[in-house]
Specification:
Length: 763
């Protein structure tokens, strides 16, 4: 990449421009499972060579974006930016950002750093900081760092030199100079929003967890930066340099020209340009001898189209998956890392705390479930403290399909059972799962309920998770697919007698058909299901779990006044109301509980509640439904694709929660509490909405057979709602006879806007 000299002569000191450090990429070092040329190919993918050079392969060489710089002026300190631009690898040991200024004379380089810093600090909103984040607890953050999986790539470098014998552990020493605790918490909460194809994955942290982790990593006051005003001339110069240096190849910004292509891959040589180790008019990477050798080997061998097998191997190495998972006899946690993997179900042994093997994972998991695990944070093992990180679809969107191509097993037919025989077959499965049969419930939860023993994987989730052919093979011989598992092999000889004549094939299929009942499956024998009635004392009470009234991520809130509600955190909506006693719960493992109102509840809509007016479709976007006949979710990203993000909740001194969530850049604080009004107890819902700009938001406040009354009152046969003074629309559902929906237009000022809604239960 040719550059012209930059005519700058500005004084600048203290940049440390003479030292460099090797780019560190966890999983791609001398200990990599890849052949040398394969490792080189993966390295070029991670160094984003395809952003400048054309002709790369379709997968690991695909163009990847660098961090989103549109608000970098609010996230990163000026001091760090200057040090980083002057010498990236010195400011951030192991960074993959090349030195773009190394060929310039010292004075010109110093001036370029100042100009680029001025331009980058101008990106964001002047006089407006990013929303402040709560101050976290550093002790809790340290525990999270050690448990959720951070150590796989970062070691324990914060406590001193790493004891893990891997050269590619990424240091975090630069964080304290780069971020405030607040800006780091926001990044950790949703890292893929800033770096869609970056290597920092999303661990699906709650807002509180992100704050705790940030406080541990960057101790100090939770403050955020503002975009800075600099000399317009210097900002313009920095913007021009940003284009000249071809920074736009990795960091696209609005109103800037597209990147300039450089030499195609076929013309690259190991002794020229970026790979030469020399300084010149090209990006400078201080590559290790292994990195230079691996990339050189790849260039000399030439690139052939990637096979699925090769692409899987490279992806698992490039994203350090084998630090936690084993596949094909390679990888798995080292003893050092294994010791730090914990479980709330110690009785399950290593299978309760070590991430599962990836052998035959493409044949094991249904495609939709695999995508939920990889990209949506779905968990089947809530008792394991180590979490499955999401590297995002930009990085690994093709991997589920590649796994499916690579991992093939012989298909086992599971024929449909005729209507007349269906009940009989499922009855056999029902008995086999219980303690009068194979006693599966002795070690597994069933619909969040325990038989009093181990609380392993919930059996009821198997039908949604597992491919039937893999399930059949596993049931016949668990140890062949999960070495070391304590689950016995029941056939042969297995129990014989009444249950379908002891025929293994018939029995396994009977269990599968029984599990296909889903939530409607009758509880098997041996599972204690007394339930527990939760009472509300002097303070409000909160219980989280699954519920028919609030979905998989339901939260119930009870008040001493005897009025209660349920909140659906998946969609950000108040989903149910009731009076009287609070809830009965079924206790399962961590995160596996469920609850039901103890009196008849008013069921409200569970669809997403808000839409930006300018983006709202004519018909309200409803929560997608799946059935046995149509098991594939037609919109698995709902409601994230609508901009919704749940950010957790906090409790006040009365135990009343305030739920935090966002729609795009608009932040919602949602709190409800009883409000006496004569002899009537109302539930008053207060919305505090923070917007960086004036906007209109549509709120779907009520659905059903709605009748309009005076004074902004709307009622169904079950609930009466009073809305604030605002424009509204009462419209019919598209399908006749399904009732109406009340759409309220909330006009937002820049800053904070407040609204309240009163709910009264009529029965």
């Amino acid at each position: 990449m040719k550059r012209t000299a930059l005519p700058l002569a500005l004084a600048f000191i203290g940049l440390g421009i003479d030292s460099h450090a090797v780019p560190l990429i966890a999983g791609l070092d001398e200990n990599s499972s890849l052949a040398l040329a394969e490792a080189g190919e993966a390295l070029m993918g991670e160094l984003q060579c395809a952003n400048c050079h054309a002709g790369g392969a379709e997968y690991l060489f695909a163009r990847k974006s660098g961090p989103d710089l549109s608000e970098v002026g609010q996230r990163v300190s000026s001091v760090f930016l200057m040090k980083f631009l002057a010498n990236p690898s010195d400011a951030h040991k192991g960074t993959r950002m090349p030195d773009m200024l190394q060929a310039l004379p010292v004075k010109e380089r110093e001036g370029a750093v100042k100009a680029l810093t001025a331009f980058l600090k101008s990106l964001g909103h002047e006089d407006e900081a990013l929303p402040a984040w709560e101050v976290g607890d550093g002790a809790r953050g340290k525990a999270l760092f050690e448990e959720v999986g951070c150590l796989a790539c970062h070691g324990d470098s914060l406590d001193g030199p790493s004891r893990k014998p891997v050269e590619s552990l990424s240091t975090l020493a630069h964080l304290s100079g780069k971020y405030s605790a607040s800006s780091l918490a926001q990044f950790l909460h949703e890292p893929l929003e800033v770096r869609k194809s970056g290597r920092m994955p999303d661990f699906h942290l709650s807002s509180r967890e992100a704050a705790d982790l940030a406080q541990f990593l960057v101790p100090g006051r939770a403050q955020v930066a503002k975009a800075e005003q600099a000399e317009p001339q210097k900002v313009r110069l920095g913007k021009r340099l940003f284009v000249q240096l071809n920074c736009v190849a990795c960091h696209s910004l609005k109103d800037l020209p597209p990147p300039r292509p450089s030499l195609p891959f076929k013309d690259l040589r190991r002794d020229r340009g970026c790979l030469s180790g020399q300084k010149g008019n090209f990006p400078f990477y201080d590559l290790s001898s292994f990195q230079r050798k691996a990339i050189g080997e790849c260039l000399e061998e030439g690139h052939s189209p990637s096979s699925p097998e090769k692409s899987v191997k490279q992806a698992l190495a490039a994203f350090n998956c084998l630090a936690c998972h084993e596949r094909g006899g390679q990888g798995g946690p080292s003893p050092w890392l294994s010791l730090r993997m914990k479980s709330s179900q110690e009785g399950l042994g290593d299978h309760g705390r070590i991430p599962p093997s990836l052998d035959l994972v493409g044949a094991k998991l249904k495609p939709l479930w695999m995508r939920k695990v990889m990209f949506d944070g779905q968990r089947a093992r809530p008792y394991a403290h180590t979490r499955m990180p999401s590297f995002g679809e930009d990085n690994l969107g093709l991997l589920p399909a590649l796994f499916r191509k690579v991992d093939e097993i012989e298909e086992v037919e599971f024929p449909e059972v005729g209507r007349k025989k269906r009940g009989e077959v499922r009855s056999v499965g029902h008995k086999l799962v219980g303690d009068k049969g194979l006693n599966c419930v002795a070690c597994h939860l069933f619909n969040g309920k325990s038989a009093g023993g181990f609380e392993g994987l919930d059996l009821l989730a198997s039908y949604d998770r597992i491919e039937p052919s893999w399930f059949y093979r596993f049931m016949r011989s668990p140890g062949s697919l999960r070495p070391g598992i304590v689950m016995p092999s029941y056939w042969p000889p297995g129990p014989e007698g009444e249950e379908a004549d002891g025929n293994a094939s018939i029995q396994i299929r009977a269990i599968w058909h029984y599990l296909s009942y889903g939530q409607g499956a009758p509880t098997p024998s041996g599972v204690g299901n007394p339930g527990t009635n939760l009472e509300v004392g002097e303070l409000a009470r909160v219980y989280r779990g699954r519920s028919r009234i609030a979905g998989y991520r339901g939260i119930s809130v009870g008040f001493p006044e005897g009025i209660h509600y349920a909140f659906n955190a998946e969609t950000g909506t108040l989903s149910g109301l009731w009076k009287g006693d609070f809830v009965s719960v079924g206790w399962g493992g961590q995160g596996a509980g469920n609850f039901n109102p103890r009196s008849r509840a008013v069921q409200l809509a569970q669809d997403v509640s808000f839409q930006l007016a300018e983006a709202a479709p004519k018909a309200w976007p409803l929560r997608p439904e799946t059935t046995k006949e149509k098991p594939v979710n037609p919109n698995p990203l709902y409601p994230k694709n609508l901009g919704y993000r749940f950010r957790g909740y906090s409790l006040d001194d009365r135990g009343i929660p305030t739920f935090s969530y966002a729609f795009g850049k608009i932040q919602m604080e949602d709190s409800s509490r009883p409000e006496p009004s004569g002899d009537v107890h109302l539930l008053r819902r207060r919305l505090s909405i923070t917007s960086p700009y004036a906007a209109k938001v549509l709120f779907r406040a009520l659905v059903g057979k709605i009748e309009a009354g005076p004074d902004r009152i709307f009622a169904t046969p079950e609930v009466r709602l009073t809305i604030p003074r605002a424009a509204f629309e009462l419209r019919d559902f598209p399908a006749p006879g399904e009732g109406r929906e009340l759409i309220v237009s909330l006009i937002l000022d820049e800053g904070v806007s407040e609204f309240s809604f009163d709910y009264e239960i009529l029965r």
